[in-house]
Amino acid sequence: MRILLNSFGLALLALLSTATVQQCGKPAITPKTVLGSDGRVIGGQEAVPGSWPWLVHLQMDRDGEKRFDCGASIISGKWIISAAHCFVREDNCMGELCHKRLDTDASHYKARVGQHRNSDGAGLDATARDYPIRRIIIHELYNMAKSDSPADIALLEVDGLISFTSVVSPVCLPTARSDPPAGQSCVVAGWGETIPQLAKLKSVPLSGHSKASSTVVMQVGVDIVNRRTCNSTQYYNGVISDDMICAGTAGKDACQGDSGGPLVCKDAAGAYTLEGVVSWGEGCGAYQKPGVFARVGHFIPWIEAKSDINSGSPAVSATVQLCLTVLLILSALTF
Ligand SMILES: *[C@@H]1O[C@H](CO)[C@@H](O)[C@H](O)[C@H]1NC(C)=O
């Protein structure tokens, strides 16, 4: 009996160690550095395949119409974060004016993980896998009538459990109220347009379907812009709210097709943390028009309330730990 319990305890110990071995924010494949030798951020470049392992290629398929519009980020085996505006459907357009509604029918979307090439042109990469979506939760304060709406964030529950590999793993969530300081160097990754549209000075959500989309994952280093500066008359003239982060300078920005994708910054321990979700901007890489991101730190209480994710250790490993302790005590008592 004692031997049986002890081996059961050992098995649980093994289970516990495999459950906690999956670290967040630590790519198995080292990303290209975004800093030049002089320490300054350099422009956009192709990412090393698999080096942003939390990056998701969101697939839309409704009524036979297949499209890729958006990126997203894996935060656990079950949950993905993207932008709310990725789920706005436009139809009955009269010129520029379209009828808008939210399409949160989960059967219309799939999460492609482990993908490097843009699926628009190419198929599924050998390392990639599609997961069906079970549920789409749009933030209640998101207002689709505004292209610069606050709360541009969405949670996607995956049907099943994402298997983590060397090219598929989660990003870390920031602590509640996290707000990266002005000047911090961070990185945006995605399949967005690589041609800056400097002339297009119109506030647009960064999701439009575009022929200029990149054929592979691109990364660009961006510096966080002071929120007050970003909200000033010369920049975005009062539309920047507390739940937004501005980042990027002229020529270095997120662009259409990057929407919903990650803005990651390294934390003190060297782990990549999801500080922002690509949201909107005027033009791309334009002067005094940085990219605007949903500030994930602001939404941590919302994320915790809507999902089973705790910013501390996952509930499952706490349960396993408790079982293990009880069993070890039991096996000790059988001596
Ligand atoms: C940006 O400016 C507007 C208008 O002055 C103001 O209402 C808003 O609170 C400001 N945002 C922040 C984050 O300070």
UniProtKB/TrEMBL annotation:
Residues 1-19 form the signal peptide. SMART domains: Tryp_SPc. Coiled coil: none annotated. Keywords: Disulfide bond, Hydrolase, Protease, Serine protease, Signal. Residues 41-308 form the Peptidase S1 domain. It comes from the Eukaryota. PROSITE patterns: TRYPSIN_DOM, TRYPSIN_HIS, TRYPSIN_SER. Pfam families: Trypsin. InterPro entries: Peptidase_S1_PA, Peptidase_S1_PA_chymotrypsin, Peptidase_S1A, Trypsin_dom, TRYPSIN_HIS, TRYPSIN_SER. The keyword Protease applies. One of its GO terms (molecular function) is serine-type endopeptidase activity. GO terms for biological process: proteolysis. Gene3D superfamilies: Trypsin-like serine proteases. This is Acrosin. It comes from Hypsibius exemplaris (Freshwater tardigrade).
